[in-house]
Amino acid sequence: MSEIVKEAWKKYLTQLQLHPLRTKAITAGVLVGSSDVIAQKISGVKRLQVKRILLLMLYGFAYSGPFGHFLHKLMDVIFQGKKGNTTVAKKVLLEQLTSSPWNNFFFMMYYGLIVEGRPWGLVKNKVRKDYPSIQLTAWKFWPIVGWINYQYMPLQLRVLFHNFIASCWSGDFLELEGKISNS
Fold this sequence. Notes:
Layout: H1 2-18, H2 20-43, H3 50-78, H4 85-97, H5 99-115, H6 120-152, H7 155-182
C-alpha cells in the first residue's frame, strides 16, 4: 500500500511542477467537494445533494485553488529573499488583514447566492448577521495555520496545505448549514 501512496505522491508532485495552477485548482475542487460529502454524511442526509457538491467543487476549482496559487506567489514577491520569524509574522499578518476577510466574505456570498440559491436580500442579511463572528473565529484559528504554512511548507505545497485545512474548516461550516437546512 505504501508503494501506491508513494507513486501517487510522486505523480502529484510532477503535475504540480509541470502544471502548478491547474493542479492546485483541481486539488482545491476535489478537497472542497470531499469536505462537503463528509459534512453531508455527518449531518445525516439520506441522499447526497450532488448539485451542492458540484457547485462547491466549482468554487474550489475556479476560485480557491487559483486564488491561493497567486496569493502565495505574490507573498514571495513582496517578501523576496526575506526569511525568519519576523518575515513569517508579516506574511501571516498581511494575509489575515487582507485575504482572510475577503475569502470568508466571498465564500458566504457564493454559498448563499449560488449554492443555496437564496435571494440577495436574505444573503445580505445573513452575511451582515454572521460575518463578524465567523471572521473573529477565523482570526483565532487561521494565524496558526498561516504560521505553519509560511514557516514550514515549501511554496509549491502551501496551497495544498491551506486547502486541506480549509476543507476541514469549511466542512464544519457546511455541516452546520446542513443541520440548519435539514431541521
